[in-house]
Amino acid sequence: MGVSRSRTVVPGPEIQVHLYDSEEEMLRALRHGDPDACTCLVKRFASLVYAQAMRLLTDPDEAESVLQLTFFKACDKIRAFDGRSGLGTWLYRIATNEALMELRRQRVVTTSLDAVEETLQASELPQNRGSWMVDPSQAALNSELRDYLHMALVALPESLRVVFVLREVQGLSTAETARRLGLKENAVKVRLHRARLRLRELLTGYLWPVTSDE
Prior knowledge:
Number of helices: 8
CATH topology of the largest domain: Rna Polymerase Sigma Factor, Chain: A
Number of domains: 2
Shape: elongated
Radius of gyration: 19 Å
CATH architecture of the largest domain: Orthogonal Bundle
Strand content: under 5%
Largest sheet: none
CATH class of the largest domain: Mainly Alpha
CATH superfamily of the largest domain: RNA polymerase sigma factor, region 2, helix turn helix motif
Distance between the termini: 45 Å
């Protein structure tokens, strides 16, 4: 049965997101096992976690699974959180790791991420060679364009989409992206370049719509 994005709405008791005056206060409540604090954590950060899972997996069922696992692990392991980053950053990292683990599990029955040739082919170069005034990595800054970018990301092959999300959306370095995916740094660079070319081609119709002289 299909799953819509409405599933990111977290069910449960009516608890105000701003029940705690600060993130530090919510963290203290979490460490003391306050159930309202965990519910508040989910309600505050569910959209962020789900969005990252969808960017990497593109499947609502899998993204929801990552959403649930992320908050289960976060609430279960909250005492291990050292506080050197914000709770949102920590949850984002957990969600990314869970999504990558799901992709690795899928590789058992699908083509490996490592099986993609790491050289650009002539057929992969964009056919539209106009002036590119907007880089697709910056497209998320515009709310309307963000929706088009999401659809373009879904259309990318998994091997390209994952590299683009980790490098351009999450902001990981080439070295860290390579480590996360078990790739060589040069492979990451090639895939990122290929992803940019594909995204520019896919976004051409939106950024530069064809106009009629009629």
